[in-house]
Amino acid sequence: MKKIWYLCTLLSLSAPLAQAQLNAHPEAYKIDKKDIKRAHELISTPVKQPLVLPNPNPDAQWFPDASLGLFMHWGIHSVVGAQPSWDMIANYEWGGRVSPPDKYYALAERFNPRDYDPNKYLKAAKDAGFTYAVLTTKHHDGYALWPSKYGIGTKQYMNGRDLLKEYVDACRANGLKVGFYFSPRDWHYPGLMHPNEFDAKTWRDLPPITDSTANQQAYEQFLAFVMAQMEELLTRYGKIDMLWLDGMNWRGVADMHTEQVYAWIRSLQPGILVNDRWANIVNPDNPQGNGVSFGDFTTQFECTLPTYIPSRWWDHCDIWTSTPGPGWGYDPNGAFRPLSWFFRHLAASRSLGGNFLINAGPSGDGDMHPNFYKQTDSIARWMQHSKESVIGAGPTPGVQLSNVMITTRGNDWYLHLLPDFKKKVSARTGKQPSELILLRTGERIPFDYNDGFVTFVLDPSKRTTTDDVVKVVM
């Protein structure tokens, strides 16, 4: 049945277009003069003093111990399991399945999440050790999941239903920090994208900008639009813990006035955390970004295993499913990566002092794939015995001190034996531990200590396919 559903989904990508199109609802982009004036004043006024990073506000200090977050890319693309936004770009390596844009935007007519119950999957995440969540309020396609004053979204297509309020309420009900993903760049905004940019073969073939003054004015109008939407996000839902931005740009304008914008964001939400991607454009074919990394936390390790400490606070975001095509969006196949992959990325992030933000997109109906719940159930069982080794655990005292990854808590170490590790464990503790404990069973592990080094071999009968954690009690 699932194969039949997926085949029907793929066939639907070539279905006739509905009324929603790239240039639909032009009235939603008539920006008020007061909003334009505010944007102009913001970029014309230098910040009074340099912004302190990370945010020193007491309400922001949860981040270093957060450890594990749930990223959710959700929107009109979820209806057919498409790559968010990028699938409207023809001939693009990481998209192109729902091009041209009119075909992609026709999905807005079909997006009506009748089974949307964020409490269900956020409770499953909480039980599995997740401490925060980040939902795409608006991706590059411009479709807003709340009834915004400007742009397209639920205001035009879902009778003004506010999908964000339900999400925020569910986060708070489950004790999760509330995160909003927001894309400043909006491909539905008139004038942001040249028609050639919707095809990877022609997207660099662009006409020159002949009137820089008019272009600057157009940029300020777009900034006014973006700020108005961000203001809605930061004033309608109470305290927001994180704003995960994903690239502001306007062709011909180099300075995106990052520090002024971030200071303005803090004026609305003093305890908020903002990542490093306002002016730093990160795309699937350029995961390292093209700009200066400036924010409360950095995001260098997109879809790549962390290998070093990039900044004081940082997160590693990656995709939980592996089916080619949907990418960051909903995977109709539910092809979640093995638990060994999950624990490798979680341990790597925590051992270097970062958080692991892992993405699983809900379906167009609003629920997670059944395999999501199987994964979270398995992780919850692991957390019952080994949670202390990752959630809120400290970083390694030195990657050179062991042949396995280390996390810490106080003076104690946690050695992470992943499934592909079959050797003798060696850890340079510098002093003899009082005992070694296999967290999964609670039993003591025999070990040798010589010249500052602890060595042991974990019996194969005690190994699993997840992460076998041995606690070194000092």
TrEMBL record:
Q: What class of enzyme is it?
A: hydrolase
Among the GO molecular function terms of this UniProt record, one is: alpha-L-fucosidase activity
Q: Which Pfam families match?
A: Alpha_L_fucos (PF01120)
Q: Name one GO biological process term.
A: glycoside catabolic process
Keyword tags: Glycosidase, Hydrolase, Signal
What do the Gene Ontology cellular component annotations say? lysosome
Q: Which SUPFAM superfamilies match?
A: (Trans)glycosidases
- What EC number(s) does the entry state? 3.2.1.51
- Ranges where the Glycoside hydrolase family 29 N-terminal domain occurs: 58-386
Q: Which residues form the signal peptide?
A: 1-20
Question: Could you tell me what this protein does?
Answer: Alpha-L-fucosidase is responsible for hydrolyzing the alpha-1,6-linked fucose joined to the reducing-end N-acetylglucosamine of the carbohydrate moieties of glycoproteins.
Q: Which family does it belong to?
A: Belongs to the glycosyl hydrolase 29 family.
> Which named protein is this?
alpha-L-fucosidase
The root-end lineage is: Bacteria, Pseudomonadati, Bacteroidota, Bacteroidia, Bacteroidales
